[in-house]
Amino acid sequence: MFALWYLTFAVDEIRKRLAWLFSSNKPAAPALDNKPADPAPAKVPTPAPAPPKESPPAKEPAPAAKPAPKPEPSKPAPVVAKPSSPPTPPKEEAPAPKPAPQPTPAPVVAPPKPATPPKPASPAKATDKMPIPLPKSLTEANTNGENGAPTNGSAANGSGGNVDERLLAGHQPNKPLAQVKDATQDFIKGETNAFIQSIKEAQLLGELKQDTMVDAAVLAKLEEGYAKLAASDSKSLLKKYLTKEVFDNLKNKVTPTFKSTLLDVIQSGLENHDSGVGIYAPDAEAYTVFADLFDPIIEDYHGGFKKTDKHPASNFGDVATFGNVDPTNEYVISTRVRCGRSMQGYPFNPCLTEAQYKEMEGKVSSTLSGLEGELKGKFYPLTGMEKAVQQQLIDDHFLFKEGDRFLQTANACRYWPSGRGIYHNDAKTFLVWCNEEDHLRIISMQQGGDLGQIYKRLVTAVNEIEKRVPFSHDDRLGFLTFCPTNLGTTIRASVHIKVPKLASNKAKLEEVAAKYNLQVRGTRGEHTEAEGGVYDISNKRRMGLTEFDAVKEMYDGITELIKLEKSL
Question: Rounded to whole angstroms, what are the CA distances from 52 to 67, 122, 380?
Fold first, then answer.
């Protein structure tokens, strides 16, 4: 950029000096420029091919050196223009190409057409005649190219090249003019490319913005739902942490891949004010995009797992550690340990298409058909299953049921029963639910309280399935699933336990359960009531601890509850 500025400045200075020179009615020296002063002349005189015999020697003072009668035209006489191709300098001596002067002076009546071209004066004499000294590039024969060689097409005697070229070359002693021009062109080209790139980026940003804009109808529904939730007496974690500031910050955001909105995250809690939590993740990216809402809820539910914490690596520990929590079968009716898993590369329920549901069902069915030994069984698609068989499986707590309003309002039950199914072994002690709440619910269960045997079966099954199906996992949050309560280990170890004395004092039951981070539910699970004093009690924490530690919390808590029930 500096080179361009300097070039412009220098050219302006030269033009001013040339204008002063011509205005003084002095004949212009050919060395000053190789361009005609007046671009109008149609013809340019050509130098004589050879000097006449009667011309004086080259070293003697030439008659033309004496100034001819000064014409007084309105414009100065044209100078000799540069030939289309520079003449090759003679090998013997440098002054040879000088044309011989014509003895006859130019006619005064026709100044635009002088009879003879003026003899090129030596640089030193031309310089002596200049009232204002010009830059070196105009007075020296050499154009200051590297090693004294002509540059940019200049002739060997330095007369070639225009004023601008010689001026710029004279002020770049270490760089040929070609390099300076190339550098300038590269700079201009770079600036142009950067400008074009900025336009492309702006266009792309505009396209992305349009792709990620939240629909006006969605925003309206969000605003309406938030206003109702804020005015309600809901005790959900959603209401607790969805402040107006968080709401305004998140309501226009969408996930990059599946374009899930805040409405997809909180719509179940907006409709069901009696929710305990009230949010779901429509896809794995939602945990990052809507972290301002997920992180405090995760910390609250999972016992202090902060947004700066990192879930430990998977560790099932020694499966032989656990025994039977109720050897006499007085209190524990059944024991179950399950975990949730999401198949890598698929979104969660609200974003799944019917084709994806069917595709996932096919993969699960073919994967489970390869299990052997105690795990060997059969896959039963929900599509086409007889109602009587379906209801019997539900009553036996083997099969999930349709119609959970919390999942329905979260758009987790679309295309039902397409893509759903159940796998169980012959003894019905090992089950896999396909596309209920999560992609996979892997379950080990049996009657009684032999937690050690049940846990061992689950660990074997999980390891076998993971060899065939990659699971969705996050370095910070652990295994990812639809509900934030099932992150990390996703392990839920539970018992159906009958404690009639503690049941009569529900506050005491809740107090002991909280001490061991246990959750008390109804007989048929979340959002149900206890039937005949039978409760579903499980570990609550699933994050910030290993699989083994999560099961041990349940083991220790149930042992304490049975001890307390016996003492009452």
Answer: 21, 21, 116
Measuring CA to CA, how many Å separate 285 from each of 155, 261, 281, 407, 486?
70, 11, 8, 20, 16
Question: For residue 558, with 0-12 CB atoms within 10 Å meaning exposed, 13-18 middle and 19 or more buried, which class applies?
Answer: buried
Q: In degrees rounded to 5, what are phi and psi of residue 433?
A: -95, 135
| Structure tokens, 212 | 């990620």
**Which residues are annotated binding-site positions?**
334-338, 397, 441, 492-496, 521-526
Report pLDDT digits (tens) over 79-107.
444 444 444 444 444 444 445 445 444 44
Q: Could you tell me which residues are annotated as the binding site for ATP?
A: 334-338, 397, 441, 492-496, 521-526
pLDDT of 180 over the 80 cut: no
Indicate yes or no: pTM above 0.85: no
Span 365-375, pLDDT tens digits: 999 999 999 99
Residue 250: predicted pLDDT = 97
Active site residues: 338, 437, 441, 483, 485, 492, 521, 526
Q: Which residue has the higher pLDDT, 196 or 550?
A: 550
Q: What are phi and psi of 324, to 5 degrees?
A: -95, 120
- Answer for the pair 294, 484: CB distance below 8 angstroms, yes or no: yes
What integer is the mean pLDDT of 295-299?
96
Which domains, and CATH codes, for the chain?
1-175 (no CATH), 217-301 (1.10.135.10), 332-567 (3.30.590.10)
pLDDT at 34 over 70: no
DSSP, collapsed to helix, strand or coil, labels residue 111 as coil
Using CA atoms, how far residue 454 sits from 204, 212, 323, 344, 550, in Å, is: 54, 46, 10, 27, 15
The neighbouring-strand residues paired with 496 are 334, 536
Tokens 């639910």 sit on residue: 433
Instruction: Give the whole-number percent of the chain exceeding pLDDT 90.
Output: 49
